[in-house]
Records
---
Amino acid sequence: MIRTAFLEKPEELVEIALKRAKKRAAAAKKRSRKPELKAVYFSNYLMERLEKAAARVPSEAVLGPFAYELLLTMESERSLKQMRSHFLTAKKLLARRKGSALRGIRREREGSLKELVGRSSSVMKSMKETFAKFNSLQKKLRVLPQVDGNAKTVILAGYPNVGKTTILKRLTGSNAEIASYPFTTRRLNLGYFEWKYMKVQVVDTPGLLDRKPAKRNQVEKRALVALSHLADLVGFVVDCSGQAAGFGEQVRLFESVKKEFAGKKFVVFLNKADIAEDRQLEEARGRFPGSEIIEFPPEKGAELREFIGKRLY
Ligand SMILES: Nc1nc2c(ncn2[C@@H]2O[C@H](COP(=O)(O)OP(=O)(O)OP(=O)(O)O)[C@@H](O)[C@H]2O)c(=O)[nH]1
Ligand SMILES: [Mg+2]
């Protein structure tokens, strides 16, 4: 599980820092030491929180290559870097303020502590937007799927609206959203089934359009990230009724995805056979020469589990 933590508002952090500093300085024996201690505790608390926040901006090393690449479909690498550097720059500024306040206090300059609190508050206030971005990033981290790295994985990919999520449901009982319009699935849906006491992970992906890789949007890229990092087997789902897309487009997409992920094992699932005409089924069978094809009526989940299990293990 990825650890997430939200930040309070900058002004709330300042309040907390002040309270803690007062409390801790009150425990000091020497009265003359109190202002100095207050300044130290106040600044250190804020600096520590900023440093922790910077460390919580995820990196590839922490998330692993799959989750990190998936995160990059929601948040740019540039924005992650910026966030980290904003936190660290603010921390540095606070350190400087602390230094000059301590010098002032030692020279018994009037108002040094007050000035420190005021100036540090402005630094913190300037971080408002970064704090908000950081919190929205934490929400994104929470929706990253928790994949099982030990289970063999089949990826369901294909054109939008061909029935990928419906197949996930038939295989695993998942209740991910199914709808009669394209682009229903915008994130990866995961489900599991057992085959001969072995765990199979099924990943349903957002629909892909037949277009150049450079043209693909962030939602489509999530499917590609799953294909690239998780696939032990790719179940390419084809709507053979023509309801979702024509054969031409679906075959072209199949060819290009196969090329992009050469080395992965592909099988073709001919879906919506129940509403396809005989001639459409006949045509579909001939459109994927050299590929293994399975046709199944919607209720045959068990048959499909067997088919997949045998090819994975
Ligand atoms: N008749 C028939 N309809 C199906 C079959 N499988 C799916 N559908 C319907 O096709 C529509 C799309 O199904 P989804 O499972 O949401 O398709 P998807 O490929 O996940 O779509 P996106 O997430 O938008 O890419 C829904 O209205 C389903 O009920 C099937 O085997 N037969
Ligand atoms: Mg779907």
---
Amino acid sequence: MIIKKAYKFRLKTNPVIEQKLWLYAGHCRFVWNYFWAMNQFRLENKQRILRYAEMDYWSKLLKASDEYGFLKEAPAHILQQKLKDLDKAYQDGFDRNQPHKRLPTKRKKALHSSFRFPEPKQFKIKNKRIFLPKLGWLSFFQSQKIEGELKNATLSYKAGHWYISLQVECENTLAQAKGSIALDLGVAQLVTGVTEANEVKIFTGTHSYRKQEQKLKLLQQKLSRKVKFSKNWSKQKRKVQYLHASIANTRRHHLHKISHTICKNHAVIYMEDLKVKNMSKSAKGSIEHPGRNVSAKAGLNKSILDQGWGELRRQLEYKSSWRGGIVIPINPQYTSQTCSRCSYTDKENRKTQATFECTACGFQMNADENAARNIMAAGLCRDGLWIEPHKRSKVGTCVNV
Ligand SMILES: [Zn+2]
């Protein structure tokens, strides 16, 4: 099986190179925003939007003009790639099969400084350096060996550094995983896993945000005291952004370690089908209908987002597919309130956050572990219909099989 992979490395830059990178990123952004504005105008006037071929034709006219002739400075390919991205963004935005996709928006310098070279024939990689059209040889911090056939290279800016992302296609040589595991996601313990053999595996989170919260607060306080858009304000703003990036990097790195361990050892992964977006919605409500427990919910939201549940799910999905495994979402209803021994379901079973105590049979267990066992039981029944835990005669056995 051929799989797609991406390697991301930090570039070693100097002011001369950075100037070029910013210039090309700016040209790409200009092209996107120019045609984006054109398409918005057409949409408002109920006209058909421009497709890639038309935009490409127009961009050539732009390049030939005096006013927009500066676009010729950038490599032609990267501008075309931006237009292709814009075209795809519009197609996805109108695609009914992708209800979460929205129409593209205007690109901003701080958020969208990237461009892609699509032609691997044009670049060479040698001794931790890459040759790119019009940019020449660029060094990067190569932290691992690049394996596979090179497909494209993307350069992007984030929090003070430029990065290069190399997409490759390679033969999948990873060993196939075996066995199954059920995962319960929690705030105190990030992941509690129970295997088929009832082994318990616990992975804790980094809480990278919580750890740096005070420092971030301090930096933000300083920022609020500075004159907006002044030089000192920009300097302080940069500090805040860098800390945010560092928090996110720590979290992602930790999740990669967890998802790697899980996918390496287990082929079938049952996990709660949580809608992280809904769960972390603000509890504030509206003026007419104010929400309850707003500050408590806000604290929980921070914790949920801090743990990165959504990102963990994404990593588990692609990594297990590389090892011939699968992630099976399970309806999380009642999993935390049901007794994994007698299937008695009651809110009262969960008196404290940490422990589960069945009011019917007196069974005691760590609450996360109990939930993971319920998920495993539900997973075993998945081929038929989902059976509500309180309707199940005995956990671990399936009524419909
Ligand atoms: Zn019980």
